[in-house]
DNA sequence: GGATTTTACGAAGGAGCCCTCTGTAAAGAT
DNA sequence: ATCTTTACAGAGGGCTCCTTCGTAAAATCC
């Protein structure tokens, strides 16, 4: 039984667990002294030294110069080598492909974008994805070999193996085995996920949903979608379709954004990407036609949201996506409509992240995969970095 | 940091983890030989003996006579002392209070019921609860002191602390601090949960949802409700209202069962508890009025269900509650309606358990609480049973 | 019925990991 | 220059696990 063997074991198992505890103490924090690590892990100082020395020998931890100014003998300081490896997060959208490269702590080093269109052929879209990542690597002074893991997010229903099952926005996208196709482009492991779910992950890790265990994330933009955070983790659903209430005809999510795009207040020469902004601006100034359009949009958004809220009773609903810049207009409307039907009204917040949130979530997912691989709680010992 | 300290630690920590592994190997299984335990845990035979001896000394494990008939020297056999302690699970319903008493492995030793009504005063209902448990204890030859934990399920929204927030069915039930009130009656720890969630837990542990990680449980009976299993665990929601889509007016769940109760095919002198059965029977024989009633009921049930299914994309939907005896009639109707709207149709099954499922789930919850207390993975050592 | 085979028990010896304790080293404070 | 504070480094010891070996108790074979 793997579940039994992963519990106890050898004496080396204890060292393994203590090594993980030390790494967790060192991750993402300022460089720590041995005493500080010992306090956090509960280990004795000599044992801490032993473990840290071993991690230094493996290459996961490096010593940094001691900090001056303190009382007593200066303590040696150590930090996790987050720059020992890197990950890429990609957002393969309808009109834009965004990429971000980060270190093992998720610190973003570079971001780039490539412009595409809904009719860009599959091969070209994949090539643009590769260029976006390559641009990040160049900007960060890294090579392909420094990349240990790549995560990608895209619109549509993505199954467990990373195949696009359904895609509302991108031409010829359904049926593409993204994990395989991207795997040909990159020499490291590749994972693929629905974009809204990665955006939700980003909000949970570094956005509006930090520390929240149960949240609904709304992607309100030219497309309308949703994702769920349950028990602190992103929920996929059995077929990867969790949160896709927008595909139910009764929610009208497929056409909800048209109220904003096709509003008469939008000048005729405005490109579709900017249309909604005009409507929101006009609504802010009280233009009745624009206000009505925004209200009808909020009606549609609230209907699908209420189904998720009633199902899950979340702590928080995050309004994300491009329209989250109009949260000042949308949130009050959404709140009113939800309060009418909700048993217990969840908190309602606008997104704290910008347009890169899917790429950021992809970075987080890639880091999580590496964490599992190198620092998982399972049996085995800690391997040296490549 | 508790999360760090719970990872590694002392040498005693290793022994603790290995003890847990041994206990898990012994739990719920036939008595095992030392060699068998060693194989399952991955420990060496001498270490296994050491750990088992220690557990025997503590009182958690007992030796049983060796089995005859094998080749070679007969091996000593050991088993977990599931009968060292006991739990009670209670279902405090509108018309009936059911109780079950089980050992630490969840094996039910006795079941009883008490009849109440929707207007039974709170104190009397609590007294009936106590009588139901006392009856179980007597039937199993146990005393109050043998009870280590009690879990109760009841209708309505129950908050994290075990207070009834909203109750549709039971008079004066809202506002009752059930954990505190039951705590006065029993000398052990008491936990309270929504009844549908406990029924779902029972289906997951020993019913139709075994091994399923994401499922929706429908309670279809005189009351209509639902509960969710997400990631293998029952989902509460932030305010304990997860799955209460039935409280949304648009679902019509509050009145859905009336189609069945008030159907003209039901003879006038039939008590309300049996009315639905007549309607289902008539529908089976093709009586048009009854068929129409069942179809309207299925319509309402499907609407709320579709919201949950679209939100969660579960692997399975379980039809439980009193009407699950009419699963042969209801499931096809429900399937047709869900297939119309569902992106990916989940599997659909009738409940595998009877009317005791809430009490069974409560037993499971009580056992889980004790497991956490005695055999949790957290720091500390294994304490002797009381 | 005795020898053989099979399986399990029990004790001894050894290695790894962590702890406590003690003395030494390096900085600022007096 | 000395004292105080903080950290480093090593020694010694205890606990837990592993491997190895000889012994014990059953069924099987001749």
From TrEMBL, chains A, B:
GO molecular function: DNA binding; kinase activity
Superkingdom of this protein's organism: Bacteria
Domain HTH iclR-type per the UniProt entry, residue ranges: 19-64
Alphabetically ordered keywords of this record: Kinase, Transferase
GO biological process, one term: regulation of DNA-templated transcription
Protein family membership: Belongs to the ROK (NagC/XylR) family.
Protein's UniProt name: NBD/HSP70 family sugar kinase
């Amino acid at each position: 039984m793997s579940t039994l063997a992963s519990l106890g074991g050898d004496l080396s198992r204890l060292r393994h667990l203590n090594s993980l505890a030390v790494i967790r103490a060192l991750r993402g924090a300022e460089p720590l002294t041995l005493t500080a690590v010992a306090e956090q892990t509960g280990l004795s100082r000599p044992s801490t030294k032993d473990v840290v020395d071993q991690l230094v020998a493996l290459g996961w931890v490096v010593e940094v110069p001691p900090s001056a100014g303190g009382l007593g003998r200066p303590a040696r300081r150590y930090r996790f080598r987050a720059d020992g490896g890197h990950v890429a997060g990609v957002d393969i959208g309808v009109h834009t492909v965004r990429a971000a490269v980060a270190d093992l702590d998720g610190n973003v080093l570079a971001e780039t974008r490539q412009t595409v269109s809904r009719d860009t052929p599959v091969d070209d879209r994949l090539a643009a994805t590769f260029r976006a990542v390559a641009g990040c690597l160049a900007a960060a002074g890294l090579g392909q070999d420094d990349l240990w893991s790549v995560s990608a997010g895209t619109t549509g229903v993505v199954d467990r193996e990373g195949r696009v099952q359904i895609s509302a926005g991108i031409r010829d996208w359904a049926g593409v085995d993204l994990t395989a196709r991207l795997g040909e482009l990159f020499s490291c492991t590749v994972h693929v996920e629905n974009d809204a779910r990665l955006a939700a992950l980003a909000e949970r890790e570094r956005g509006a949903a930090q520390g929240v265990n149960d949240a609904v994330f709304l992607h309100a933009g030219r497309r309308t979608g949703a994702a769920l955070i349950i028990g602190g983790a992103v929920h996929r659903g059995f077929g990867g379709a969790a949160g896709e209430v927008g595909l139910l005809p009764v929610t009208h999510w497929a056409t909800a954004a048209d109220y904003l795009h096709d509003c008469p207040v939008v000048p005729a020469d405005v490109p579709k990407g900017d249309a909604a902004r005009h409507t929101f601006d006009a609504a802010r100034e009280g233009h009745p036609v624009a206000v009505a359009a925004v209200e009808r949009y909020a009606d549609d958004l609230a209907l699908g949201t209420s189904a998720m809220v009633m199902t899950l009773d979340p702590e928080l609903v995050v309004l994300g996506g491009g329209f989250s810049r109009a949260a000042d207009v949308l949130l009050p409307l959404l709140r009113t409509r939800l309060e009418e039907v909700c048993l217990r009204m969840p908190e309602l917040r606008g997104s704290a992240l910008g347009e890169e949130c899917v790429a950021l979530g992809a970075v987080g997912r890639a880091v999580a995969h590496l964490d599992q691989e190198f620092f998982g709680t399972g049996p085995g010992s800690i391997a040296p970095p490549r």
